[in-house]
Known about the structure:
9% of the residues lie in helices and 40% in strands. The protein contains 1 helix and 13 strands, in the order H-E-E-E-E-E-E-E-E-E-E-E-E-E.
Amino acid sequence: MKMDEIKAVLKLLEDNDIREFEYEDEDLRLGIKRGAETAPVIAAAAAAPVAAAAISASGPAAGTASPAQESGHLVKSPFVGTFYRSPSPESPPFTEVGQKVTVGQTLCIVEAMKLMNEIEADISGTVKKILADNSQAVEYDQALFVIEP
């Protein structure tokens, strides 16, 4: 898809007040969401998956459902992307509420620009709460899990 075609699609979406659009072919995936929540995103095809360590902090993050009220260790998204609880739709989730996890254990995947990034536990403990829904768009530094050490 050429830039002038993308501009034409953007104009069409704006003129018809369409809030969400997705297009995919073998070389390109284009996803556009309009509104206050998200900005347009253009993602090209990417290479191999990359594992990323989870980031922890104790303060609330923008765009999260009041994690400041949660007691325990917060595992946050190191990327803007799409949250997945399992490696594929047919597979069981990596973890469930109440399950014990260890350092380095995969908790979820955050897809960013076609890269499947495994988010790992950076603390051992019990998963107290899962703060994101499967296939939900997540923001950078958004709390994903509460782990009780």
